[in-house]
Amino acid sequence: MSIVIRPFRPADLPHLQEITLAAFPGVSLDQSIEEKFGEQNGHDWRWRKARHIELETIANPAGAFVAEEAGRIVAYITTTLDRANGSGRIANLAVFAELRGRGVGRQLIQHALAWFRGEGLSYALIESMSHNEAGRGLYTSVGFQEIGQLVHYAMKL
Ligand SMILES: CC(C)(COP(=O)(O)OP(=O)(O)OC[C@H]1O[C@@H](n2cnc3c(N)ncnc32)[C@H](O)[C@@H]1OP(=O)(O)O)[C@@H](O)C(=O)NCCC(=O)NCCS
Questions:
Q1: What are the DSSP calls for 61-86, one per residue?
Q2: Which one in 32, 39, 78, 83 has a CA-CA gap of 20 to 30 Å to 155?
Q3: What is the pLDDT of residues 103-155, one digit of tens each?
Q4: Could you read off the pLDDT of 12-64 as tens digits, one per residue?
């Protein structure tokens, strides 16, 4: 069955959030914070992660894309732009586990990079948790180069 990539539509949001909650356990910064400090403000990490996706698609709906197989959304990518800076950032990307390893993640990144170029941007950014081997393997495989490593800190107030 072939994969079709198309622009995001607002009605897709629950599907993106479902994929997010299935895909991000073990590779989510929000989850790591929760493991140390518990829920924040009465919300668990799933709520926060799902909310990130909503905010990204509200902020830049034209820069979000979904991958469908037989009419079912199986993966997505969200992006943010800084036009003054000439940069685009891939904010979130996830593929349902049963569809992984078939090049869907790569196709979505290449689609987003082509969209960035069409928007006149001159470079692209992306981040990964250091232990996310699939994410890191994917990013370097499409041409991203590692620049540096960021260490996240948090404290309870
Ligand atoms: C990261 C993710 C999006 C990759 O999606 P995918 O469709 O399986 O990736 P692809 O099939 O397009 O793989 C493309 C390349 O990425 C690399 N890659 C993919 N999975 C990998 C893994 N588990 N380990 C190492 N490298 C991997 C390989 O170089 C691969 O190329 P190859 O198949 O020719 O070897 C998917 O694993 C996922 O949804 N993970 C959970 C959410 C996440 O981590 N998102 C990214 C952080 S925002």
A1: GGG-EEEEETTEEEEEEEEEEETTTT
A2: 78
A3: 999 999 999 999 999 999 999 999 999 999 999 999 999 999 999 999 999 99
A4: 999 999 999 999 999 999 999 999 999 999 999 999 999 999 999 999 999 99
pTM of this prediction exceeds 0.90: yes
The continuous run of DSSP H or E covering 125 comes out as strand 123-125
Q: Which residue's CA lies nearest to atom 26 of ligand 1?
A: 137
Domains of the chain, residue spans: 3-141
Residue 5, beta-bridge partner list = 67
The CATH superfamily of 3-141 is Gcn5-related N-acetyltransferase (GNAT) (3.40.630.30)
Q: What is the distance in A from the centroid of ligand 1 to the CA of 74? A: 14
101 CA distance to ligand 1 centroid (A)? Answer: 6
Main-chain phi, psi angles of 68, to 5 degrees: -115, 145
What b/e readout covers 128-153, taking b as 16+ CB neighbours within 10 angstroms?
Answer: bbeebeebbebbeebebeeeeeeeee
- Residue 109 CA: nearest ligand 1 atom is 12
